[in-house]
C-alpha cells in the first residue's frame, strides 16, 4: 500500500499523454543518451588505442548497448518510469492498473524501443501511438504499460472529497478504524479527490482494491450492494467525524436518553421517536364533607382542625 501513496501516487491520475509531449520527451532522452555515448566513446578510444581492431569493435558494440539501451532501462527502473525527458515534460510510465513499473516492464520497453525508435527513427512508434486509443507504442502494448501525464492542471476542485450518499450516513459508526494506517487513509483520500479523472475501468479496480484493504483492517466486510467508491467515502467521513469529535467535543459523546433501539439510516424506514405513553389521570384527593351535627349544644364551638394557632384566653 505504501507504493501507491509515496513515490508512485501518480497512478491515481491516469490521463494518457499525447504524442507531441511523448515525442519531445523521447528527443530529450535521446539527446542525453547520445551525449553520454559520445563522451564514453571518446574516452574508450583513447583507452583502447593499443587494442586490435576486433577488440575495439567489441568495445564499441558493448558501449552502444550499455549506454543507448541499458541506460534508459536502468533510469526508468530506478525512477519508476520518470526519465529526464519525461520529468521535463511532466510524464511518467505506469502499469495498466496504475501501479509503478518494474524492471521487466522497463526491459521490454527498452528492447522494443531499439526497433521502433532507434532503427526506424521513431516512425513505427509514431504510427502505433496514433493508432492506439490510449497513445501506446508497441513497447507499451507488450510491456503492459502506459505513459500518463503527471502534472494535471487544477480543475477548480482539487482536494474536494465527495460526500457519501445520504443512505450511507452513519451506517459505519460501529467500525473499529484504529487499525487502518495513515498511508491507507491518504490513498483513499487521494482516490476520492481524483476518481473523476480516472479511466472508469481502472478507477473501479482501484476502488475495489482500496475497499478490500480497508475492510481487511477493520475486520468487517464491505456490505453487499454498496459500491466500493461509496463505501470508501462513507468510511472516510466516519473517520473525519470521529476526529472532529475528539478535537472539538473532547471525544465524549452526550449520553443518550434510554429509548428503544432505532434502526440506522439507510437500513430501515425513517427514524421514529418512541411512542408516547399518555399519563394516567389522577383525581385530586378531596376530604369528605362532614355534615354538622344537630345535637351540638348552642354556644359550644364545634371542633375545628388544628391549625397551630392558639386563641387568647
Structure description:
- Residues 271-291 have a biased composition (Pro residues).
- The chain crosses the membrane at residues 24-45, 57-75, 110-131.
- The protein has 313 residues and is mainly alpha-helical.
- The chain contains ten helices and two strands, in the order ααααβαααβααα.
- It has helices at residues 2-5, 19-47, 53-78, 84-89, 103-119, 123-131, 138-143, 182-194, 200-218, 228-248; strands spanning 91-95, 145-149.
- A two-stranded antiparallel sheet has the order 1-2.
- α3 (53-78) crosses α5 and α9 (200-218) crosses α10.
- The longest helix has 29 residues, at 19-47.
- The radius of gyration is 39 Å and the shape is elongated.
- The model is unreliable at 1-13, 153-158 and 251-298 (pLDDT under 50).
SSE topology:
Elements: H1 2-5, H2 19-47, H3 53-78, H4 84-89, E1 91-95, H5 103-119, H6 123-131, H7 138-143, E2 145-149, H8 182-194, H9 200-218, H10 228-248
Antiparallel strand pairs: 1-2
Membrane topology: Multi-pass membrane protein
Main location: membrane
Subcellular location: Membrane
Helix/strand order: HHHHEHHHEHHH
How many DSSP E strands?
2
What form results from the Cα inertia axes? Answer: elongated
Strand order of the largest sheet: 1-2
Overall SS class: mainly alpha
